[in-house]
Amino acid sequence: MEIPHTEKIASPTEASRFPLPNLLPESEFLSLIKCLNEKQRKYLLNLTNIVKTNPSEPFYHFISGGAGVGKSLLINSIKQVLERFWIHQPNNKPDDIHILPIAPTGTKSKATIAYMLTQAQNLQHKKTQNMQYLLKLCTETKYIVSHNIAVPDGISNGSPCILKKVIYGQLCEKGNREQIPIRAYVQFEKETTGEKTRQKLKNIIQADGITDKTWTPIQRICRSFSLNENTHIQVTRNQLPLLPSNAQTIHCSQSCTYKNILVFITKNLSRKLLYTAFSRVESLQGLHISGIYKKPIRATIENDPSLREMIRMRNEAQLQFSLTFPEEVKNNENIIALFHNVRSLNLHFPNVCSDRTLLACDIIMLAETWSQPADRYEIDNFTIVYRTDCASTKRKAFGTLIYVKSALLPHINILFQNESISGTNHSTVVALTVCNKTVIMVYKSPKCQWLVLQQQLQQAINTSLQNNVHEIAIMGDFNIKYQVSDPNFKNLNDFMIQNNCFMILDPTKVSTDHNSLIDLCFSTNPQTTSFIFESVTSDHKPIWIELINP
């Protein structure tokens, strides 16, 4: 089936802004993060911390690795995490461009780079706007979408799909009664792709008699371009935004993986292009070659400037992380205690169970778990020593959980626990001793009075001293900004000084995505080391301390 285009002379049209990049559903996003290996996870956390804490500072990182090691996975994770951060920042509009991938994986062609740059400038200058003069359609055949139709819905330039059905009709033009394809139904690789479009066009889908809920309608679109470089005449082409994709250029195959491929070799294919093409297949058995293969010249420092630069970066420019990871300092002579306002353990529990940083800690204290009594939150090799849940059937910003490594359990003693609840205001203080040291966990809801928390803290500190434990660390979400302008800051600061406690976190840093320091840590031992970490699932950052076990 061949579909001719329709064209008419028109005045230039203004290009629309590049739409908001596609965000994965929360469940898919969390699954994506779980797929990262150790190095990828650490890099993502460190990069996230750099962007969140110094958003105006430019930086340049180079990520390398062979085919299939997960570069695209990492880049997609970075895009998803940072997009989620930026869209929630004050004064940011949903349709603003926050993340713009330029040749997102591998060595993209010059045409692709130019295309992405023009998108960044909200312009389109490609000769025919990627609109085919003659488009051949065949059902049950692979196609790709040729334009950004609904990027937040996953329907963007390059989205792979299978053509399932073509609907015929007439264009709304006077004197044109020709029956032509006006709509195509395609099936994308992921069922979630096109979900919003299917909901939006459900009446059209019903009228077309489509019963398969995974088929997405693709409407004809119009794009304008200059007739040639020497004239100002504009041509508008009306066409279905699809391209056959049973065959692809090597550049367009970047980040794709197939069971079987056929590579057409010409004499002009470089070593880089051969590598890119051959590495698209899962195994050597699935690689087929058409043409004469000639072994390329081996890359050397003398003939390959890219190799020279990679060697220089490995030797002279190794990335140093700004974050300190608990698993890197953990040993048999210290105890690591971590506090995190997790913003729903119920939602993030699978990620907590697989978080290598959390699992390296000896004591894990979580607030705002949104938990209910029937929920099961067991973690291998850990024991729950304290827990509170939402009292009602409705989940809300309530609940705490304290985990202790099971091997450390004989050395743990709960000295004090107190929970104050008044309507929606509440505060929780729990004190436990470990190896002649007391760790006090604190959580105060935003509107809870400081005097309530002050009384709880004083009782916890007094209980520790009465048990002859004088080294005390206090950590948690105080919901009091550590700055002079906060009316409760002076009260908190004076209280800690009176009890011989010192702020051991860096007061110049922030503990939330809202540029505030409200997760705090104090200690009677000023030599106690403490750190602010990073999170990709909560707007609060974890804080952790290292206690030396004599």
Automatic annotation (TrEMBL):
Limits of the KAP NTPase domain: 42-130
Alphabetical list of SUPFAM superfamilies matching this protein: DNase I-like (SSF56219), P-loop containing nucleoside triphosphate hydrolases (SSF52540)
Residues covered by the Endonuclease/exonuclease/phosphatase domain: 439-543
Stored InterPro entries: Endo/exonu/phosph_ase_sf (IPR036691), Endo/exonuclease/phosphatase (IPR005135), KAP_P-loop (IPR011646), P-loop_NTPase (IPR027417), PIF1_helicase (IPR051055)
One Pfam short name: Exo_endo_phos_2
TM stretches of this protein: none
Entry keyword set: ATP-binding, Helicase, Hydrolase, Nucleotide-binding
GO MF, any single term: helicase activity
Keyword Lipid biosynthesis: no
The name this protein goes by in its record: ATP-dependent DNA helicase
Lineage summary: Eukaryota, Metazoa, Ecdysozoa, Arthropoda, Hexapoda
